């Protein structure tokens, strides 16, 4: 975690440490290879933003301001589902590095990675069912369907220069925002809140997730390998046309040349990044992310003040500040 995110999450620092311990217990596969593959991912860490948000909503919505065991389990399930999606993402996108370490399929092999991802999805489903809350099961299980929808949409639009901003936002919802929205709503459901509050937390998670994805896509253009934990320009190389590029195309038609030949020459990616940086594409993408941040904050506008709610607002600001 960055220093900034560590400071934001300091009130739940011990809860997140407990989560890390429990994650490794929960993937207790009998097969040593499968266990090693799953543990490999959790050892790499990550920002843990998704489970942190679940825990903070738990504090915000329970009458005693305590995190109940069901909320802790939901936070763990959320991180397992997220991690499973990354395993499959890396295979599809042929990524060699994730979070600064070799990806699962690169460390083991593709078959093991696919099985590890499937195993994590299966484990999450098992623990989800054992929450004994049908509404939460319905809400979270929809996310796994959304992941598949997002991957299919991304696959059929690779290097397609006619992708619209709406197509991009829809794909980003399926791949990123769906899990955040569903986990926020589910945390609220477990606290037995009313439907209006559940809807507000869903909207908070949805817009936060969209902003998060847009910022990720900007960082793919302007970030370094060290800061990203993977090579810059990975999305471009894989033909995933993201917000900065979609906006840049409006100003620099020369980018079509590189996309149409699928960045096949060695310097194509670097040339495309230089052109994108010379346009307003990055700023327009940042403005779009800011709109979603404002929408996430609007969803929390009428919530009673407590440190957890304040931290949820700080998370919204932290996501935009990842660019600084």
UniProtKB/TrEMBL annotation:
InterPro entries (alphabetical): Isoprenoid_synthase_dom_sf, Polyprenyl_synt, Polyprenyl_synt_CS
**Cofactors that this protein relies on:** Mg(2+)
Flavoprotein as UniProt keyword: no
Asked whether the UniProt record includes Transferase among its keywords, one would answer yes
* GO biological process terms, semicolon-separated: isoprenoid biosynthetic process; quinone biosynthetic process
Q: Which GO terms describe its molecular function?
A: metal ion binding; prenyltransferase activity
Task: Give TM regions.
Answer: none
Which residues, by range, are in coiled-coil regions?
Answer: none
Keyword terms = Isoprene biosynthesis, Magnesium, Metal-binding, Plastid, Transferase
Look up the domain of life of the source.
Eukaryota
User: Could you say which protein family the record assigns here?
Assistant: Belongs to the FPP/GGPP synthase family.
Q: What is this protein called?
A: Prenyl transferase
Gene name tied to this protein: preA
């Amino acid at each position: 975690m960055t220093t900034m995110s560590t400071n934001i999450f300091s009130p739940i620092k011990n809860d997140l440490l407990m989560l890390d311990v429990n994650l490794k217990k929960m993937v207790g596969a009998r097969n040593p290879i499968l266990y090693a593959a799953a543990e490999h991912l959790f050892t790499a860490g990550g920002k843990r933003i998704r489970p942190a948000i679940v825990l903070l909503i738990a504090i915000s919505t329970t009458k005693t301001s305590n995190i109940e065991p069901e909320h802790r389990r939901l936070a763990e399930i959320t991180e397992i589902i997220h991690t499973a999606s990354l395993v499959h993402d890396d295979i599809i996108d042929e990524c060699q590095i994730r979070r600064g370490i070799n990806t699962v399929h690169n460390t083991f092999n593709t078959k093991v990675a696919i099985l590890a991802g499937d195993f994590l999805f299966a484990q999450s489903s098992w623990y989800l069912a054992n929450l004994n809350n049908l509404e939460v099961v319905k809400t979270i299980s929809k996310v796994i369907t959304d992941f598949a929808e997002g991957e299919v949409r991304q696959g059929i639009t690779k290097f397609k220069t006619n992708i619209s901003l709406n197509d991009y936002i829809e794909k980003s919802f399926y791949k990123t925002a769906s899990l955040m929205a569903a986990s926020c709503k589910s945390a609220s459901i477990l606290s037995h809140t009313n439907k209006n509050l559940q809807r507000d937390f869903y909207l908070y998670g949805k817009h936060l997730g969209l902003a998060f994805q847009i910022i990720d896509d900007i960082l793919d253009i302007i970030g370094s390998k060290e800061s990203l934990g993977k090579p810059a320009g990975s999305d471009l190389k894989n033909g995933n046309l993201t917000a900065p590029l979609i906006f840049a195309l409006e100003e620099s038609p020369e980018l079509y040349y590189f996309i149409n030949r699928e960045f096949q020459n060695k310097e194509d990616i670097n040339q495309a990044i230089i052109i994108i940086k010379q346009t307003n594409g990055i700023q327009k993408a940042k403005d779009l992310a800011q709109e979603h941040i404002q929408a996430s904050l609007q969803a929390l506008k009428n919530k009673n003040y407590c440190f957890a709610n304040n931290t949820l607002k700080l998370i919204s600001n932290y996501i935009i500040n990842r660019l600084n």
